[in-house]
């Protein structure tokens, strides 16, 4: 009845300002509001608003009733209109927050409540609603802060104690929850809603405490089992720690070795194949040793859940090492020598060929014949070198003598054989 009286007094004030009277709100609508049925009142408010579409009070109440009736989209529409009429309407902001949260837009609801609290920091409904929203957003500390602020501002606001007790219970701070419920029991009238709620909630807390103690007691009855389990866990933890330290050291050392190789390799010019071959010869066996040790560790740890993270690092390191080993093998070094030799000899042949053409053009017969002979000799020498490289690569490691390398060498032989014929065909 108190709620209806407050509502009517508020409506009277609003209606008076808009040239309406409280009698325009029917007894039937008032009676239905008391039963939490807001539809008759909504119909009447809609009728009032037809004549007064920008009446802030009527829009505020209709937005509120829409929210209570579960018509949240309509509530948001009316509340938004209220905010256009009065940007500082805390009632409009609270209704916006309530409706948005009811639609699952909890964060947006919090933002509306934040605006209301910026206008009136100790606004009870906004603080309680925001506290509930924070809990839904899994931010219990913020939820607790709102309730504690409200209680500090008004130590006798029992509703806040009810919610804070529930929050403490969810956070497993049972002693704090009991203290809040006990405060309510000391302050509330026996039989009222706060006293009844505190009584029920306190029983729940005491039951949770009893269950927790029973669980601890049951667990403690088998001391031998508990000790055995503890010893097993300790032993496993020790093994995991020792293995982790050992493998971390191994992975760190191997990574350092690989990085050192990369730096040295980058510092050696591409044309210095002897220097690279020497570096490959040094690094290859060391990386193979690391690889062998890591493969042993992988076999030992396979299928053990506790080492899943380490296994991922081991697999990555093994892949990197296999790549380094492949790229630093004797085959890789000899192949690089072959490439550098061909490039160098090709460059020399190209220079001689250009000189020969220039001599031919300038009618220097003797010099032309010498240069032609020199070009033919160098091209033949290059063909011999390519064939020797092919044989050397096959001997070193047939499995690494890939089809693509064989195809490239065959093409080179064909190209330089053709070059040899072309040079032979040039006459003075």
Automatic annotation (TrEMBL):
InterPro entries linked: TPR-like_helical_dom_sf, TPR_rpt, Ycf3
Keywords from the UniProt entry: Repeat, Signal, TPR repeat
SUPFAM superfamilies on file: TPR-like
Lineage summary: Bacteria, Pseudomonadati, Bacteroidota, Flavobacteriia, Flavobacteriales
Annotated PROSITE patterns: TPR
Signal peptide: 1-22
Protein name (database record): Tetratricopeptide repeat-containing protein
Keyword Repeat tagged: yes
Alphabetized SMART domains for the sequence: TPR
């Amino acid at each position: 009845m108190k709620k209806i009286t407050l509502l009517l007094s508020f409506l009277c004030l609003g209606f008076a300002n808009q040239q309406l009277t409280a009698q325009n709100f029917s007894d039937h609508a008032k009676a239905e509001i008391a039963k939490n049925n807001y539809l008759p009142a909504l119909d009447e408010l809609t009728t009032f608003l037809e004549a007064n579409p920008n009446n802030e009070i009527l829009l505020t109440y209709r937005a509120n009733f829409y929210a209570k009736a579960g018509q949240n989209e309509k509530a948001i529409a009316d509340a938004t209109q209220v905010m256009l009429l009065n940007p500082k309407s805390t009632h409009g902001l609270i209704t916006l927050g309530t409706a948005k949260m009811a639609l699952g837009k909890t964060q947006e609801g919090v933002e509306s409540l934040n605006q209301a609290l910026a206008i009136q920091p100790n606004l009870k409904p906004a603080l309680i609603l925001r506290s509930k929203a924070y809990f839904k957003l899994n931010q219990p500390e913020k939820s607790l802060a709102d309730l504690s602020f409200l209680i500090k501002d008004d130590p006798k606001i029992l509703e806040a104690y009810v919610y804070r007790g529930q929050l403490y219970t969810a956070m497993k701070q049972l002693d704090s929850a009991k203290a809040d419920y006990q405060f309510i029991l000391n302050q509330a009238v026996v039989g009222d809603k706060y006293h009844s709620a505190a009584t029920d909630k306190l029983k729940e807390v005491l039951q949770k405490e009893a269950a927790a103690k029973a669980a601890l007691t049951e667990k403690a009855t088998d001391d031998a089992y508990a000790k055995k389990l503890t010893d097993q866990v300790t032993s496993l933890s020790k093994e995991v720690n020792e293995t982790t330290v050992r493998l971390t050291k191994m992975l760190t050392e191997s990574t350092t070795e690989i990085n050192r190789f990369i730096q040295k390799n980058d510092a050696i010019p591409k044309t210095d194949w002897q220097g690279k071959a020497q570096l490959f010869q040094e690094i290859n066996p060391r990386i193979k040793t690391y690889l062998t040790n890591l493969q042993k560790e992988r076999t030992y740890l396979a299928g053990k859940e506790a080492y899943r993270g380490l296994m991922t690092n081991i697999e990555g390191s093994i892949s990197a090492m296999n790549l380094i080993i492949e790229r630093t093998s004797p085959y890789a070094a000899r192949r690089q020598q072959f490439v550098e030799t061909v490039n160098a000899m090709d460059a020399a042949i190209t220079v001689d060929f250009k000189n020969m053409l220039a001599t031919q053009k300038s009618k220097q017969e003797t010099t032309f014949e010498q240069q032609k002979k020199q070009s033919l000799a160098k091209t033949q020498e290059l063909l011999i070198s390519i064939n020797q490289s092919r044989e050397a690569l096959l001997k070193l490691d047939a499995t690494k003598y890939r089809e693509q390398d064989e195809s490239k060498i065959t093409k080179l032989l064909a190209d330089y054989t053709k070059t040899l014929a072309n040079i032979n065909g040039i006459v003075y």
